[in-house]
Amino acid sequence: MSGWALVPGTAPLRGVLVGAGGLGPFWAKELLASADTELAGWVDLDERRAVDGAARLGVTGLPTGPSLAAMLDAEAPDFVVNVTAPLAHREVTVTALEHGVPVLSEKPMAPTMAQAREMVAAADRAGVLFMVSQNRRYLPALVAYRDTVGRLGELASVSCDFYLGHHVGPDHFLFTLDQPLLLDMAIHLFDGARAITGTDPVSVYCESYNPRFSWFPGAAAANAVFEMTGGLRFVLNGSWCADGFQTSWTGSWRTVGAHGTAAWDGETAPRAEPAPGARITATAPDPGGTPEGRFHGLAAALREFVAALRTGATPQGECHDNLRSLAMCHAAVESAATGTRVPVA
Ligand SMILES: NC(=O)c1ccc[n+]([C@@H]2O[C@H](COP(=O)([O-])OP(=O)(O)OC[C@H]3O[C@@H](n4cnc5c(N)ncnc54)[C@H](O)[C@@H]3O)[C@@H](O)[C@H]2O)c1
């Protein structure tokens, strides 16, 4: 339980969505589909995108505009969902928090740790909830893998291979990043390692690089070794310009413990093989999946956010906790830049 202001009553919570690019419409669908929420307005610097997005979803009369501050004054929503590009995350989130409005934000919280700490401080000052949606945490197969890993006894290592050919064009915001893999994608896998093992980062050694044939301007590949609490080693081998034998978007995992090994392809049911004399079985994922045409995990994150606003129960991705996952990304970047092992603050 935590100290943010609760929203009393049982009426659906009114949410303003900010960002109508690639992912914004998927969040709009969730706000419309949930019995606990209403879509009260849609903001985008390019207002046309919000207007067109609303029309495509068959929503009429929805307030839209280019300015979040104006929308907050006009609509007085119960919460804001921030689905802008990362460079805008601080401005949008702090504007909402300073209006006393709770925020559910897309990952990564911010492009720098300094900005992220500023945002968390703004949430503390306002006394309202600020949560980052880490949608992989709600994958039924990840939950089953976490459960399976919990039976391995003392853990020695967890590794994640992530190899995909992510063919985006130069107009994508990833082209503005020096470290697109570590500063945009890796948060899913780093946060996933924390969720799966229940450990926190201590230090990291990382090398990042850009293959000569890469279509990204920034470093699209990295190898990182983290020391986690309890002495666990977590290794990420990743590349976003790796065509062929692609892993899932949640990577491919192996965790080794005293009682055996648990493996997971990032999508389907996890598997477990016991050490001699040990008895471990893999947990089957909960079959309740995501309805077709919707983006996985957003509905579950929205449910946790609403429950946190109603009850004070701490949600996954609560901003203070999420800082630890973001810190893994930035410590990895620092290690890659300095060639040294660095502590994860
Ligand atoms: N969880 C996931 O699996 C997942 C998948 C895709 C994207 N994302 C995240 O979602 C976020 C958005 O990604 P996207 O692909 O939709 O990006 P995008 O670039 O397609 O869209 C971003 C939108 O935000 C708008 N915008 C930018 N600054 C703004 C501001 N100050 N005020 C209002 N609007 C502003 C832009 O005009 C654009 O329409 C990113 O943080 C990204 O990392 C998460």
UniProtKB/TrEMBL annotation:
Domain GFO/IDH/MocA-like oxidoreductase: from-to ranges: 150-261
- State the SUPFAM superfamilies in the record: Glyceraldehyde-3-phosphate dehydrogenase-like, C-terminal domain, NAD(P)-binding Rossmann-fold domains
Molecular function terms, GO-annotated: nucleotide binding
Question: Taxonomically, which superkingdom?
Answer: Bacteria
Q: What ranges does the record give for the region Disordered, renumbered to this chain?
A: 266-294
In this chain the Gfo/Idh/MocA-like oxidoreductase N-terminal domain maps to 14-133
Show the InterPro entries listed in the entry.
Gfo/Idh/MocA-like_OxRdtase_N (IPR000683), Gfo/Idh/MocA_oxidoreduct (IPR051317), GFO_IDH_MocA-like_dom (IPR055170), NAD(P)-bd_dom_sf (IPR036291)
Stored Pfam families = GFO_IDH_MocA, GFO_IDH_MocA_C3
Q: What is this protein called?
A: Oxidoreductase
